[in-house]
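Exercise: predict the fold of this chain.
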Amino acid sequence: MQEVFVRHPLVRRLAAHCGVAGLITGLLTVAAPAASAADTTTDLGVTFDSYTTDLAVGGGRVFVSATDRIIVADTGGNLTGDAVTGLSGIRELALNADATCLYAALTGSNEVAEIDTASLAVTRRIDLSAHPWC
């Protein structure tokens, strides 16, 4: 008489989980080349202060607030030479969904500046003086 071994479903499930865990461990332990900090750092000439500096990323560009101006760089960290000036008290930045408009909150005047990201011109100022900020 020949013996037939029937594996329990729990044993098969445990074996499958161990195989997947081994595969994931192998994939995670593959050494990836480390990026050099010198290759990923760009000096924008801005001192970051958690209360005044903000950034927005979209449309292949990075917009960084610097109290009285907004500096523009590409997503590779290269300065484009462009800046939005003539604003004071820039506090927060936000882009619309298609990155065609940048919005900057201006604390001194209780306004939000709407900026066309193609021309970097202020297209309008939204007055919020009826709703003062803290």
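Check your answer against the key: Strands lie at 55-58, 61-65, 70-74, 79-84, 90-95, 101-106, 111-116, 121-127.
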